Amino acid sequence: MSDRPKTPLLDQITRPADLKGLTDAQLVQVAQELRQETIAAVSVTGGHLGAGLGVVELTTALHAVFDTPRDKVIWDVSHQCYPHKILTGRRDRIRTLRMKDGLSGFTKRSESPYDPFGAAHSSTSISAALGFAVARDLGGVIPEGNGDAIAVIGDGSMSAGMAFEAMNNAGHLGKRLIVILNDNEMSIAPPVGALSSYLSRLYAGEPFQELKAAAKGAVSLLPEPFREGAKRAKDMLKGMAVGGTLFEALGFSYLGPIDGHDMDQLLPVLRTVKARATGPILIHVLTKKGKGYAPAEAARDKGHATAKFDMVTGEQKKAPSNAPSYTSVFGNELVKLAAADDKICAVTAAMPDGTGLNLMAERYPSRTFDVGIAEQHGVTFAAALAAGGMKPFCAMYSTFLQRGYDQVVHDVAIQRLPVRFAIDRAGLVGADGATHAGSFDIGFMANLPGMVVMAAADEAELVHMVATAAAHDDGPIAFRYPRGEGEGVEMPETPEVLEIGKGRMIQEGKRVALLSFGTRLGEVRKAAEALSAKGITPTIADARFAKPLDRNLILQLAADHEALITIEEGAVGGFGSHVAQLLAEEGVFDSGLKYRSMVLPDTFIDQASPADMYEVAAMNAPQIEAKVLEVLGVATIGEKRA
Description:
By secondary structure, the chain is an alpha/beta fold. It has 26 helices and 17 strands. The longest helix has 22 residues, at 24-45.
């Protein structure tokens, strides 16, 4: 395979309207070419492969039948939107996916009118589609016009409470709304829970095979009045003792299940629904994640997220690692602690591999809980595990923990329950961009009474913090760490339980003190080396704790230096703000301390490499060095001399 597959029909498609003149057989060919182009593009860029391959036929059929961008297709999570981007005028840029100044890996309103609603967290599509449907009926005016609203949601996303809240509301309002349940039996991890079992029973064994044959035979009947078509489908399903009773109870007409890779089923059903639907309807479509690319189909995660890869073998081209990832350090350390303490357990929300809890699940399956895409439930579940005498570690990405914030406040913090929050993907994460950045957790955790908030400066510190969290029974505790490899430091043989609220001195110096919180410490050290060449030797300290603060350390640094600068990988309102509050209350500013706080800028930073994103944020070593020179007035002296 060359990098560019032959795609004669796809080459003629510059926008979805170009699909309208094609025959059904030609649409089948477009889908085949679209699959090859998607594989070729992701082999160059890396990214989310499996989800997109699963919806190639569905994407082609939707754009052929509906009138986008007037009709709104809303992709839940939007991991699966690459084929959609290729068909909607962005093929020429598809090999810039997830790169600096390139296409987003998710749908993004500012990128194209064909992306009516941005998404990168799950289970929001039905709420959004209902909003568009109501806006249409109320006469809302937007440049593209307001037509049908179609939510495409996976079975994993459907398990989250928000999807049911939206369906309940949609059933009550009765607006014309189309929900396509893209059922591939798999979100990122295999889907868990009773809903998944329910969907499996809907098409288990014989009945689905009969329906599939019947649906193919009934293709000529489907375009007849919708009532009759729907009645046939319902009667067939009820006769097989399966059916969409759960969805019908919520007020939706249920149609399916149909084969999402068979255009002979997809096209007639979508055309019928477009022509005849009145109220809310749910179309149950069966697909296969990774479909049509053997290496993805064979992978455990069906090629969910991949690095660049060889198209022929599927082998990923990952750079050799010099140090363990923070995620694996956490996972390994937790398994060691769980071996010595049978009260330690772990909770995650559909991210066992991403959070390193797959290691715990293999060793201690009865104490490891993947609650599915349900962060709110996961946090409260962990709270009650703690109330019940267990030692739960609630492992979630910073960006996903936001979804359970009410529960962190109400169910954990107010009740002072010892839930241990392992906050992965803290700071700027790279290719996933602003939606996945862990920018806000320092602020939103540190302002809660009784919450202990730690940040690891390197992987050895993370080992100590996991042990510290395990030993902490007096209320909730959180520790944050970034995506990617550690610093390559020597790992401790035995973890140390840190004294709560105590930082550490890294080097003694004069005039200016640099107080780091988290993994910018490496950049702070580099800045200090560059400064020493200019005759300035800063003091460096690692705060370790944003809550409670090490008052003695901070006040001593303030007393012994003319300037104090804090550095953290988080938004304004976090560690630096707490330090400023302490200094103000203690009257330190009254005697002339120069204080600066380096935080992420007040903007959402687009995807690039983490190093590039921190450059944009002005938080790499050169900018730390410049900040020191500026606060000491050295830079201005240099300019005057020049």
